[in-house]
Q: What sequence folds into this?
């Protein structure tokens, strides 16, 4: 009989071995699923996971997609460590893009080096403010931050759609629900000539580095760990739960907002209703795949960016719906969480105990 | 604005139709949470139930088989959650999120060939005499059988949880799983069964949405209803009749904003579409004012259980 036995100490090997194992399991089960749906499984996996690595253009695109995922994922992983569940990063991303974009459009046609930093500040403020709604409601009224932050995603999507169809609509845009294209001063400088990879990539890496410092070398990071693993001990140690909720939601909201500005002022170049691409939700998986560790999040961001680009080409070539990629993402999260059991438990083959009747 | 086009009986009937998917999903989740499990995958189970029911009804021509398929699909998906969250003791919040992502993607893939197709018509139950009553006939007695099923399910859940031995055991497992285990109840098996029931109910809610309310298949058509159902369970403080009230309040909000849009109120339609989501937040804030509420949540909600020894 197979049974799980608790380990005396978490297995360090398992901590690092489970994420790649989960990716492999996802590939295997994904292929089974695609075969069952009548799509060529090997070809699908090749398109999604291998082809994006082959051309220089899609390698640069990898950076474009990974930057927002890493930015948001780093922020979320702080909160997840402390049991603060910001599930609405997608909404904070949208509001960040709207706030930053509106700031850029307000000074339309005015060139200046200060325009882009101002947009970034506005976007971070927007994302921060949007995240403060569930944070303050939780500490003031004890409402569930999962439900509130998620409801605000739908509100943000509708608001973006209303704004680009109303006040922010391009006056010369033939009534299309789109803003003007951002002016040159309001678009992200390109990092690699001839691609869309922008300086946001460097910002994302810097943010991951700062988060690593905060977690490893600062008492703030330590207090988050304690709060997640031993809430009672954290209370005795005098760590304030309210402060942790505000800090985690605020930081992850501001980072999601910044990612929103980067997306609007980078690859998209304007505000459109289709701006949100699910980065806020995918970043949840990035955080877990990266083991809530900033370095891991950077690697995980790269892996998930791969599935994004692969998913886009699979849409074109295999006529898969855009949402198909979330099948992979959901499966990956399942396997990651399931594999976690082996970090703290070992599987033992044991005979059923002898019956005591005699 | 011409208010004379509004027919109160028709609006009331539409409210009931809009509330029914929420009621099914909320009742299922209520039982799951009473057993001490938090399954945040309601949205994913609903949408898979919606496409499974729709596809089965289109392929077989029988709406009834569609309903059965949607419940079966919801239960199957919930078994995945139960395996990871109960057997492997994975974090329930994150596993529920994974279930929602997986379900939304799976439904989009399965539903690709069905978009834009009409569903076979769902027969309304016509009751002699009652259906012909003025006003009340239209409002209460001309619905499809599933509306009455949802009401029966509310009463049944209330009776079962509160008045039956099995219901008592389920609540005991949710309140103190170690004690329940010590007396000899099989905590994991009981929770597994509760999760399957919740999945079937969520699937049924999704099936109702695709077969009766809309009746169409549109990708992402649940549009957050699964999450609203979760909020309704909190609002209901885990009581079936209050879940009914909550579902009907949200049905009302949906119908009012749709009617305002139809009347051409001079406001961008997006702002009206926001109201169900804002109402959810508002309700969550309002009920938290009641202090005793926190004590009403099942004590073991969301905590993993591992049998010792």
A:
């Amino acid at each position: 009989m197979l049974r799980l036995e608790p380990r005396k100490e978490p297995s360090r090997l398992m901590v690092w071995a489970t994420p790649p194992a989960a990716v492999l399991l996802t590939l295997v089960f994904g292929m089974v699923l695609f075969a069952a749906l009548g799509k060529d499984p090997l070809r699908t996996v090749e398109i999604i996971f291998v082809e994006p690595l082959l051309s220089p253009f899609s390698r640069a695109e990898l950076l474009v997609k990974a930057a927002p995922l890493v930015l948001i994922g780093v922020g979320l992983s702080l909160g997840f460590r402390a049991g603060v569940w910001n599930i609405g990063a997608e909404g904070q991303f949208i509001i960040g893009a709207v706030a930053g974009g509106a700031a850029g459009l307000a000074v339309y046609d005015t060139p200046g080096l200060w325009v882009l930093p101002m947009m970034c500040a506005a976007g971070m403020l927007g994302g921060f403010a949007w995240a403060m709604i569930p944070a303050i409601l939780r500490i003031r009224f004890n409402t569930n931050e999962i439900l509130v932050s998620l409801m605000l995603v739908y509100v943000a999507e509708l608001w973006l759609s209303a704004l680009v169809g109303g006040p922010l609509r391009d006056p010369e845009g033939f009534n299309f629900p789109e803003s003007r294209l951002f002016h040159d001063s309001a678009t992200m400088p390109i990092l690699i000539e001839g691609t869309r990879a922008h300086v946001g990539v460097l910002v994302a890496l810097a943010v991951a580095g700062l988060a690593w410092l905060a977690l490893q070398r600062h008492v703030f990071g330590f207090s988050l760990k304690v709060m997640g693993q031993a809430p009672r001990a954290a209370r005795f140690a005098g760590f304030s739960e309210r402060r942790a909720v505000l800090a985690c939601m605020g930081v992850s909201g501001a980072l999601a907002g910044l990612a929103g500005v980067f997306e609007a002022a980078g690859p998209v170049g304007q505000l459109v209703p289709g701006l949100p691409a699910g980065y806020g939700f995918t970043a949840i998986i990035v955080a877990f795949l990266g083991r809530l560790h900033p370095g891991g999040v950077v690697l995980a961001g790269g892996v998930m960016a791969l599935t994004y680009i692969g998913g886009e080409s699979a849409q074109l070539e295999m006529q898969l719906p855009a949402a198909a990629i979330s099948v992979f993402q959901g499966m990956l999260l399942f396997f990651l969480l399931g594999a976690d059991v082996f970090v703290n438990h070992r599987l033992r083959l044991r005979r059923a105990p002898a019956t005591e009747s005699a | 604005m011409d208010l004379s086009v509004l027919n109160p009986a028709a609006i009331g009937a539409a409210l009931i139709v809009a509330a029914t998917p929420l009621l099914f999903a909320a009742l299922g989740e209520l039982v799951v949470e009473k057993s001490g499990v938090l399954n945040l995958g309601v949205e994913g189970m609903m949408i898979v139930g919606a496409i499974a029911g729709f596809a089965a009804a289109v392929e077989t021509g029988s709406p009834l088989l569609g309903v059965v398929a949607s419940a079966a699909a919801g239960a199957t998906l919930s078994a995945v959650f139960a395996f990871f969250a109960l057997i492997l003791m994975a974090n329930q919040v994150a596993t529920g999120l994974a279930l929602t992502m997986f379900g939304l993607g799976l439904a989009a893939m399965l539903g690709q060939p069905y978009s834009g197709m009409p569903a076979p018509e769902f027969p309304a139950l016509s009751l002699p005499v009652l259906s012909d009553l003025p006003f009340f006939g239209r409002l209460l007695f001309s619905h499809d059988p599933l509306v009455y099923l949802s009401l029966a399910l509310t009463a049944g859940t209330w009776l079962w949880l509160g008045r039956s031995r099995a219901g008592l055991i389920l609540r005991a497992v949710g309140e103190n799983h170690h004690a329940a285990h010590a007396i000899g109840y099989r905590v994991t098996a009981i929770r597994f069964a509760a999760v399957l029931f919740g999945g079937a109910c969520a699937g049924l809610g999704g099936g109702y949405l695709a077969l009766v309310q809309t009746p169409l298949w549109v990708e992402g058509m649940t549009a957050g209803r699964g999450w609203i159902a979760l909020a309704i369970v909190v609002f209901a403080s885990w009581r079936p009749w209050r879940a009914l009230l909550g579902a009907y309040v949200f049905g009302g909000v949906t119908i009012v904003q749709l009617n305002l849009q139809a009347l051409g109120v001079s406001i961008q339609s997006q702002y009206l579409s926001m109201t169900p989501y804002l109402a959810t937040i508002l309700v969550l804030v309002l009920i938290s004012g009641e202090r005793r509420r926190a004590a009403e949540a099942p004590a073991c909600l969301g905590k993993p259980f591992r049998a010792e020894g």
